[in-house]
Amino acid sequence: MTGDNARQHVQVQDPHQDVPIRRWHLEKVGQPPQPFGGPIAQTIGAIRVLNRERDPLAVPFVQDVNGHLWAAFPKGAGLWEWSHITGGFDQPVGVVAVDDGYNNYPGTRPYIFGLLLNGELQLYWWNGVRYVPTTLEPPPGTTLDKGIGAVSLALFPGTSAQPFVVVSGKDRNLWVGWWDTSKQPPAWHWVNLGRPEGVTFIWKIGVVGVTARATGHGLLYIYMYCDDGNVWRCVSDTGETQWTNLQKPPFPPTGTAGVTAVQNADDKTPKVCAFVTDHGQPLYAHVTDSGGTGWHDAGTPPTPINFGLGTALIQPRAGGDFVPAALVADTSPAVWADQADPDNRWSWYRVGDAPEEGFGPQLAAGVIVEEPPGITYTHVFLLGRNGDLYDAWYG
After folding, report:
1. Which one of 147, 194, 230, 343 has the fewest beta carbons within 10 angstroms of its own beta carbon?
2. What is the dihedral of CA 147, 377, 264, 47, to 10 degrees?
3. How far apart are CA 230 and CA 240, in angstroms?
4. What confidence tens digit (pLDDT) does each residue in 118-129 have?
5. CA 41 – CA 294 distance, rounded (Å)
6. To 5 degrees, how large is the angle CA 155–CA 1–CA 210?
7. Backbone phi, then psi, for 102, in 5-degree steps?
8. Mean pLDDT over the full length of the chain
9. Contact between residue 5 and residue 12 where contact means Cβ atoms under 8 Å apart
10. Distance from C-alpha of 324 to C-alpha of 260, rounded to nearest angstrom
11. What global pTM score does this model have?
C-alpha cells in the first residue's frame, strides 16, 4: 500500500465573509497504467485511509477489464499513484477500512470483498506488508448470489469497528457475515437476515452502518427494492432484525441513487437517507426522522435527470453540521448534487460537466477526509463509460 502525501486542496476565500467558499469540483483520476492495467470495469468502493504517517487520504478501489484490483492514492496537484493489488473477483462487493493496530501497523488496513462464480466470498486484507487472500465459506445450506455491500461497524460500546458484509443467497434471503471475536481464534460467522414474507429482492438501493450516540450500539440499515413494487428497509444488530415496508416510490427506482447516514452533535439518533430516481423523474428521498414512511419529492435539476450516481455527506460550512447529498447525471450530460438543509429542504448545485463518453448508472458512496483537522473534504468517485475514474469532491 502506498500514499505518503496528503492531497493538497486550494480554498477560495469569500471576499464578503471570513470563511472559504465551499463547492463541488469534478476532476479526472484516469485508469491504471499499462502493461498490467487498463480501462476500469467496476468500482469497488472508496475508504478513508490513514497511511503510516497517519495522513488521511480518500482512496478508491477498482477492478480493471483484465480482472486486476487497484487502488489510487492522491499525490497532490491533481496527480494520482496507482497501486496494483492482485487478481480480482467475479462480482465485487465492497471495501472497508480497519484501524485496530494489527501487528503494530500505524495506519488503517483495507479489507476488500468480492464474490466468486462458485458462490464463495473472497477477501483480500492488508496485514501491514501485503494483501492476504482469504476464502470465506458461504452460509450453511446455500451459496451466495449477489453482493449488497460492506461496512465497518462497532456493534457494542467499547468494541472496535470491524468489517460486516451483506449478501443475498441462492435461498433468496439476505445474510450478514463478520468475524466472531468471542472465539479464539476469531471465526467467520453468518446470520440469516431473512426477507419480507412473500417477496423477492429485485435490486439493492444500499446499506449503511450507524451507531446510536445515546446507546453506543451499532445497527445495519439495508434498503432493497422488491418484486411487490415496494422498497423494504432491514434494520439489524445481527441479533434482532426488523423489516419495514417503506411503500412504493412514485415510479420503479431503476435509476437508484443510494443510501447515506448523518449524525450531528445535536442528533440523538442517526438520520438515514435513501434516494431513488429514474430517467425523466424527480429525485425522491426517504429520511428516517421525517415522520411516516412516505417518499418526499427532493426536486429535479434544471435539466431532466437521467439516472443516479451516488450519495455523500458534505459540510457546507467548515466546523458546521453535515448534510446528506445525492448525485445524479442529467440528460445534457452534466452532474448535479441535491443537498438537504437541517429542515429537509433540498437545493440543487452543479458539480460539473460529465466527460464526453458520459457516466453510467452507479451507486457510488462518498468518503470524508480532514485536511487539515477541522476542515473536511468529501470525495465521490465516479466511473466513466470509457473506463476512466473521476473524483467529484466537495470543499
Report:
1. 343
2. 30
3. 22
4. 889 999 999 988
5. 36
6. 20
7. -55, 130
8. 89
9. no
10. 7
11. 0.91
